[in-house]
Design brief:
Elements (H helix, E strand, L loop, with lengths): L1 H7 L1 E5 L4 H12 L4 E6 L4 H8 L4 H4 E5 L5 H8 L4 E4 L12 H22 L4 E5 L16 E2 L7 H6 L3 H20 L3 E5 L2 E3 L9 H11 L4 E4 L1 E6 H13 L5 E4 L3 E4 H11 L8 E4 L5 E2 L2 H4 L8 H14 L6
Parallel strand pairs: 1-2, 1-4, 2-3, 4-5, 5-7, 6-14, 7-11, 8-10, 9-13
Antiparallel strand pairs: 10-12
Helix pairs in contact: 2-10, 5-6, 6-8, 11-13
Bound molecules: NADP nicotinamide-adenine-dinucleotide phosphate.
GO molecular function, one term: oxidoreductase activity, acting on the CH-OH group of donors, NAD or NADP as acceptor
Keywords: Oxidoreductase
Protein name: NAD-dependent epimerase/dehydratase domain-containing protein
């Protein structure tokens, strides 16, 4: 019995050194209850120093070097775990040269490897980080629809328009849910939109650079789209909630707020009046509206947009990404 209990409290996080992975590891360690196996591709200090410095890491964090394309490496990290959070997946900043190799294979084959390893290791639940990009990229949806968990991005549309990231997340999430159906493995997926919030890791990730570059004034004119977003700390809470709530099942959209880029800049200006350059906003295509009611029904709480943006900017300044 003791063995079973300790297995439930040992969990694996793939992609532990990334933006979302790092906050999830911190959240799990902070409970004092979990031992965490974290997979990283590079054990060097630049990618893992921030993880080793977390409270509780010395006693309860074990790092494993594993590419998700390497089944044996993944299986080794997952063995002995009661739960697995599959976070690792490429989030390209630029258009990939070879989408199949750079994006689709790690997302889809990586997910297959993680799920197979979990099934073999008799893992109790797998929480897969998918994306709003797997929900909303579908020209068939009416513009004013509020999307829920029944909505799926259209794979052909993603392929023909070169939305490789959206395609990778759609294929990987479908694969995860189909694998669960086929094998009985307990899989829950969580679909966040743009993730913002303070950085823990040293290497800035793609979604944080969206806000950094906007505030740096990298473009003369900015398409003033409404964007759905969530704070990385609230996403980490949602992932743990999806793991710990026995009745959680299927997909969960995890969006906290929806703001036009000009509104986000105005909020930042209210805290840091000197930070932003003058920008010209032009009307842009809106992102789809989506509902996180299913996640909120599990008890998910989220912070205000002001707190998210203020803490994001504070951390970008501290990291030297924005001027002090
Ligand atoms: N940030 C967002 O706005 C957002 C929105 C929706 C969903 N998501 C999802 O959230 C997850 C984490 O993204 P993030 O924002 O935290 O980006 P990130 O900081 O770039 O993290 C991505 C992670 O995936 C790992 N990875 C990529 N390819 C891998 C491979 N072949 N083998 C092993 N690990 C691999 C990276 O490892 P290395 O550190 O070794 O590169 C990194 O740890 C992804 O699944 C992403 O699709 C993010």
């Amino acid at each position: 019995m003791e063995g079973e209990a300790s297995k439930t409290k040992t969990v694996c996080v793939t992609g532990a050194g990334g933006f979302v992975g790092s906050w999830l590891v911190r959240r799990l360690l902070s409970t004092g209850e979990y031992t965490v196996h974290g997979t990283v591709r590079d054990l060097g200090d630049r990618r893992t120093g921030h993880l080793k410095a977390l409270d509780g890491a010395g006693e309860r964090l074990r790092l494993f070097k594993a590419d998700v394309l390497d089944y044996a490496g993944v299986a080794y990290a997952v063995s002995g775990c009661g739960g697995v959070f599959h976070v690792a997946s490429p989030v390209p900043a630029d258009k990939p040269q070879n989408p199949e190799v750079e994006v689709l294979a790690p997302a889809v084959r990586g997910t297959q490897n993680v799920l197979k390893a979990c099934h073999q290791a008799k893992v109790g639940r797998v929480v897969v980080v998918s994306s709003a990009a797997a929900v909303a990229m579908n020209p068939g949806f009416p513009r004013d629809a509020v999307l829920d968990e029944d909505a799926w991005s259209d794979e052909d549309h993603c392929r023909t328009t070169g939305m490789w990231y959206a395609l990778s997340k759609t294929l990987a999430e479908r694969e995860a849910l189909a694998y669960a159906e086929k094998t009985g493995l307990d899989v829950v997926t969580v679909c966040p939109p743009l993730v913002l919030g303070p950085l823990l890791q040293r290497v800035a990730n793609t979604s944080s650079l969206v806000l950094v570059n906007l505030l740096k004034g990298d473009r003369d004119t900015v398409e003033d789209k409404a964007r759905n977003a969530v704070d990385v700390r609230d996403l980490a809470d949602a992932l743990v909630l999806a793991y710990e709530t026995p009745e959680a099942s299927g997909r969960y959209i995890c969006g906290a707020y929806r703001k036009k880029l000009s509104e986000m800049v105005d909020i930042v200006k209210s805290f840091y009046p000197d930070l932003t350059r003058p920008m010209k906003f032009v009307e842009g295509e809106e992102e789809r509206m989506m509902s996180s009611k299913k996640l909120q029904a599990l008890g998910w709480k989220l912070r205000a947009v002001e707190e998210c943006l203020r803490d994001s900017v504070e951390s970008y300044k501290a990291a030297g990404l924005l001027p002090e």
